[in-house]
Write a structure and sequence with these properties.
- The chain is of the alpha/beta class.
- Helices cover 38% and strands 20% of the residues.
- The chain is built from 16 helices and 18 strands.
- It has a six-stranded antiparallel barrel, surrounded by four helices.
- Helix 4 links the parallel strand 4 and strand 5.
- Helix 1 crosses helix 5, helix 3 crosses helix 4 and helix 5 crosses helix 15.
- The longest helix is centred in the N-terminal third of the chain and has 22 residues.
Length: 500
């Protein structure tokens, strides 16, 4: 299991609110009932002792939350709740907030202890709109303690994304490759999200690499760890010290340049000038850092790196970045293979040279980049093009995801859940056969229709629900998802869709 270190720890401040014409004891009683479920579900939380009835209570609660180190907020309407003081709390807290309300437990409470939080949540949501507050409101926000606790557990993952993004810095090296202008990265949407951007030259990276050569003891330690990780699947033992030196250079750059941020991702130009200058391809090192929660995206794909980071925060597992690469010939799929509710036309291969970490591959070995070898070494004995990590992508549930700044400088996103099939892709690179129900139409009307680039980030889990809420909370309203055949995409030719 990878050690994910480049993400925030979330501590949820749980604050009960009570309208002054209801007894505050009702909110306290319902908080008492909620706490055992929060503990059972493993939610890291701090219960604020202040029940908010007025603005002075709001100030006291804010002071308590700050002292407790809470960086996310659960506002719990134990009864109707005062919308002014409550939304003031959310506005001044500064971190991501979830709002939920207590359901009436049984007929016994209806005589005198009814809380009317179903009604109060309406006024709260209206007041949020007046103040311009975005919050996480679950699909069914009025519930019993066990239901609210399960939603709070989901919110921890959503909040981790939001907090991480607000403290993130992107390090890029080199301009976008001419042939991959689709990886264009309009900068302003990053600033709108609170992300810092530091763009650097490839020469900066080369100098950092040369400087790292001085740290021989550290290089030897990392090279030994690489040898252990590859478990004998390394035909190029002479290459490991160079790769280890590059890993030291990237980590040193992160530590020296984080500045006012806490977390980092990289987006590096990895070809064609990289190989003659450095003497290898960086894929394996990229995979190792990404496996520890520090995504290193290929081809200076800044939005790809951020997309991988969002996945890592949402799942606490490594992500990868793949080309939505090629169609799947029918003879690749063995007879009787389940396509997991997809059609043959919905299959595609996800591919990259070798940037997926060992944990996410069925098997892996250090190899050379075949396409670059043809271009840079004329198909001869590989030297400059060694350093990819190749193998079949681990089969199982996945989520394909991307956050993107479009050509107009607006943020958009797509999310699609599916499966990597347990099928040998019978080709090179880090590759797998993806089955996403409805992908063929999704590809045409979302990916092609809205001008998304060829890279997508992959979560090795079904986490669409978390990602959807996280990007909404980040302010992204344009979120594409696969639609069933019964629902047309905007602009889709209905004569073709329904005229079969």
């Amino acid at each position: 299991m990878a050690n994910i270190t480049n993400v925030p720890e979330v501590k949820l401040g749980v604050v009960g609110v009570s309208r002054d014409c209801f007894p505050a004891s009702l909110t306290k009683k319902r908080l008492d009932a909620l706490e055992p479920f929060l503990k059972k579900d493993g939610v890291p939380y701090h219960r604020c002792p202040v029940v908010i009835e007025n603005e002075k209570d709001t100030l006291a609660a804010l002071d308590d939350l700050k002292k407790a180190g809470a960086n996310a907020l659960l506002v719990y309407l134990g009864n109707f709740g005062p919308e002014g003081p409550t939304t003031m709390l959310m506005e001044r807290f500064g971190g991501p907030a979830m709002v939920a309300a207590a359901a009436e437990e049984d007929v016994g409470v209806l005589q005198a202890d009814r809380g009317d939080a179903l009604c109060g949540l309406l006024n709260n949501s209206y007041n949020q709109k007046l103040r311009g507050i975005r919050s996480y409101i679950p699909q069914y926000p009025v519930g019993l303690p066990e239901q609210i606790s399960a939603q709070a557990a989901d919110f921890i993952n959503i909040a981790r994304v939001i907090i991480g993004i607000k403290r993130l810095k992107i390090f890029s090296f080199g301009p976008r490759p001419y042939d991959f202008l689709a990886c264009n990265a309009p900068i302003k949407p990053f600033y709108d999200l609170g992300i810092e951007v530091q763009e650097n030259s490839e020469l900066d990276l080369l100098l950092a690499f040369k400087e790292a050569e001085k740290e021989q003891s550290r290089i030897k330690e990392i090279a030994a760890d690489m040898e252990k990780e590859l478990a004998g699947n390394n035909p190029y033992p002479d290459l490991l010290p160079k790769l280890a030196q590059f890993e030291v250079a990237l980590l040193n750059w992160k530590d020296a340049n984080l500045g006012g941020c806490d977390y980092a991702v990289f987006a590096d130009k990895c070809w064609p000038a990289f190989e003659p200058a450095f003497g290898f391809v960086p894929c394996y090192v990229n995979s190792r850092l990404t496996g520890r929660g520090i995504p290193v995206a290929c081809e200076v794909d800044m939005y790809g790196a951020v997309s991988e980071y969002i996945i890592t925060c949402a799942t606490m597992k490594p992500a990868t970045l793949l080309d939505i690469n090629n169609s799947v010939p029918a003879d690749v799929i063995p007879a009787g293979t389940s396509l997991e509710q997809a059609d043959q036309k919905d299959l595609f291969m996800g591919f990259h040279c070798g940037n997926t970490c060992c944990e996410c591959l069925e098997d892996c070995s250090l190899k050379y980049q075949l396409i670059m070898n043809r271009g840079l070494e004329k198909g001869g004995e590989p030297l400059l093009t060694r350093g990819t990590l190749e193998g079949q992508l681990k089969h199982g549930p996945i989520t394909f995801f991307r956050l993107q700044g479009n050509p107009e400088g607006k943020l958009s996103s797509y999310i699609a859940e599916g499966t990597i099939l347990n099928v040998d892709p019978q080709t090179f690179g880090g590759t797998g056969v993806f089955a996403i129900p409805g992908f063929a139409r999704f590809y045409r009307h979302i990916l092609v229709g809205k001008g998304y680039p060829h890279h997508g980030a992959v979560a090795f889990a079904k986490t669409g629900k978390i990602l959807f809420e996280a990007v909404k909370l980040l302010g992204v309203d344009d979120i594409g998802v696969p639609l069933p055949d019964s629902l047309p995409y905007p602009g889709e030719n209905l004569f073709e869709l329904f005229g079969k």
